[in-house]
Design a protein that fits this description.
Elements lengths: L3 E5 L8 E6 L6 E2 L4 E6 L3 E6 L4 E6 L6 E2 L4 E7 L34 H4 L8 E5 L9 E6 L6 E2 L4 E6 L3 E6 L4 E6 L6 E2 L4 E7 L54 H4 L9 H9 L18 H14 L37 H16 L2 E9 L1 H13 L7 H15 L5 E3 L6 E3 L5 E3 L1 E3 L2 E3 L2 E2 L7 H16 L13 E5 L18 E5 L3 E6 L4 E14 L5 H16 L7
Parallel strand pairs: 20-24, 24-25
Antiparallel strand pairs: 1-8, 2-4, 2-7, 3-6, 4-5, 5-13, 6-8, 9-16, 10-12, 10-15, 11-14, 12-13, 14-16, 17-27, 18-19, 20-23, 21-22, 25-27, 26-27
Helix pairs in contact: 7-8, 7-9
Length: about 575
């Protein structure tokens, strides 16, 4: 028979704490201490772990439910050997055990000097200590909420700690002026650690009365001085109920109470999830209650970043689609020698920003291939002799070969949509040509290259190149491209990595052709070899497809008769 057990909410030091996340669903396998739900009080976000391992059969809670100690979270079929679930705490005062006699001679704990040592005089400098944090050791400080000179009130938060299951603030046990901070972000603290030295503005607290017999309310357990632990995993110092005081009405929720300032408002599980994906959680906008970041927000951020490049959330964030980049170094170059300042041209500024975005957001891979263009070059020269008034460059042959390859491999003639979930395949063939001008690189587009012959392309290429150098290109001349070609053949080089021109998914780089000895089966013969460098977006195109495209392109250039097919 299946061993079904109830997983219950442990002692959390509060009643009616809202559930903000349910971390499991029926059918899930859970390990002991794995988080089941996330609760959020006005001072902390905490996960409630499974008390034993097993398979979730039924979840009894949903987001928005308010729970107290003993509430059933889920029904779990326990694995063999799992420890039995601890019995829930008694729910009624009638069943409460009689208070234990006060330990008259119990020695004071070393970590609780404020309870054992005599009270300092009013206005003296006192130590603010880390209280009981549920038995944890070495809990990291993720925020220091005060600075030297600040005036703090009693119960005002001093630091924020984050364990693997809870984020908690540590409040001041008394009011005063902060004279010295003893901790910084990244320090790991345990119970009794000194947070700060505070010049107390309060009078000396009255000495603790001697232990006395319990009053007439024998059925009500005596409340301890120290705060109640949060399910053994964290605490809310100063938030334990006091006597029979009726709870006040809950104020409107303000996320700044939980995560003040600019700190990201998210549970430890969501922070860990973001770290696993390499996401700077400060860039993610929360959609949960009070702006809390939920798992779906992180997943959506990653999906958008991969699809089209996430934009920074504000002017203070670094460029690069939310990448956590270091600031640009500031150097006084003049102290090393003579310098001259020259402003960038408008084209350089625009193209520089686009290139930086494309390089940062597109996963580039470059496939290199060699094309034997010996026969092509002989034909090109002969064609030039027959059309002396027209400049016929190798680029027009490359355009025709690219169009043939785009028809053969339509995935290269495509773009990702802005969501990154759909690929838009284009039925037209517009090719962008990188043109070097005195002011920088521009990429005008030749349209409908599949409908034009070599001579037509030569005419249009000459016209649009002149237009670019004369600074007469309009927006229409530089939009609508499907694929780009960047040719350095007239300059030099053997290979390079061209940057994909978003939203295209590939670009062809062409280097300088060189005559090389090639083995033909009988002997080495001189052949004119053209180096090709194909950069592509690896989100859309895999390496095998890119290799086939580059090989097909080299074949087309190696036998110009194929361009007629």
């Amino acid at each position: 028979m299946a061993d079904l057990k109830e997983a219950r909410v442990p002692d959390i030091g509060h009643d009616n704490v809202p559930v903000i996340e349910v971390l499991v669903k029926p059918g899930d396998k859970v390990a002991k201490e794995q988080g089941l739900i996330t609760l959020e009080s006005d001072k902390a976000t905490m996960e409630v772990p499974a008390p034993f391992a097993g398979t979730v059969k039924e979840v009894k809670l949903k987001v928005g439910d308010e729970v107290s100690e003993g509430a059933v979270i889920a029904i779990i079929e326990a694995d063999e050997g799992s420890a039995p679930a601890p019995a829930p705490a008694p729910a009624t005062q009638a069943a409460a055990p009689a208070p234990a006699p006060a330990p008259a001679a119990a020695p004071a704990k070393a970590a609780e000097p404020s309870r054992a040592a005599p009270a300092p005089a009013a206005g003296g400098v006192r130590e603010a200590l880390v209280p009981d944090i549920g038995g944890h050791e070495g809990v990291p400080v993720i925020e220091v909420l005060v600075k030297v000179g600040d005036t703090v009130a009693k119960d005002q938060s001093l630091i924020t700690l984050e364990s693997d299951k809870a984020t908690m603030e540590v409040p001041a046990a008394f009011g005063g002026v902060v004279k010295e901070l003893k901790v910084k972000v990244g320090d790991e603290l345990s119970e009794g650690a000194v947070i700060a030295l505070i010049e107390s503005s309060e009078g000396a607290p009255a000495a603790a009365p001697a232990p006395a017999p319990a009053p007439a309310k024998a059925a009500v357990p005596q409340v301890e001085e120290k705060p109640a632990p949060l399910g053994g995993r964290g605490v809310l110092p100063g938030n334990a109920p006091e006597g029979d005081v009726a709870p006040a009405a809950r104020p409107p929720f303000d996320s700044r109470i939980v995560m003040p300032g600019d700190a990201p408002y998210a549970s430890p599980a969501i922070r860990a999830f973001a770290r696993e994906l390499g996401v700077d959680i400060r860039q993610v906008k929360g959609s949960g209650r009070g702006g809390r970041i939920v798992r779906e927000d992180v997943a959506s951020y990653v999906k958008h970043a991969l699809a089209s490049g996430a934009r920074p959330s504000g002017p203070a964030q670094p460029a690069g689609g939310g990448l956590n980049l270091l600031p640009w170094p500031k150097v006084d170059f003049a102290k090393f020698g003579a310098i001259e300042e020259k402003p960038l041209s408008r084209i350089q500024k625009i193209s520089g920003a686009n290139l930086a975005r494309n390089w940062a957001m597109i996963p580039h891979v470059t496939q290199h291939e060699d094309a034997d263009i010996t026969e092509l070059e002989a034909f090109r020269k002969k064609l030039g002799e027959e059309n002396k008034d027209l400049k016929i460059t190798p680029l027009v042959f490359q355009i025709k070969a690219v169009v043939a390859a785009l028809k053969k491999f339509p995935q290269f003639n495509a773009s990702l949509d802005e969501t990154g979930e759909k690929l838009i395949l284009k039925k037209y063939f517009h090719v962008g040509i990188a043109v070097d001008t005195p002011d920088g690189l521009v990429v005008p587009v030749i349209r409908d290259c599949d409908k034009k012959g070599l001579l037509d392309l030569a005419v249009e290429l000459g016209e649009i190149s002149k237009k670019a150098r004369d600074k007469k290109l309009g927006p229409n001349d530089m939009s609508g491209g499907c694929f780009s070609i960047s040719s350095l053949g007239g300059i030099g080089g053997t290979a390079f990595t061209p940057i994909v021109n978003a939203p295209e998914v590939a670009i062809l780089g062409v280097s300088k052709a060189q005559t090389k000895p090639v083995w033909n089966g009988k002997e080495f013969a001189p052949r004119l070899i053209l180096p090709l460098s194909l950069s592509y977006d690896h989100r859309v195109i895999d390496g095998a497809l890119a290799a086939r495209f580059a090989s097909f392109l080299a074949t087309q250039l190696g036998d110009i008769r194929r361009l007629l097919l």
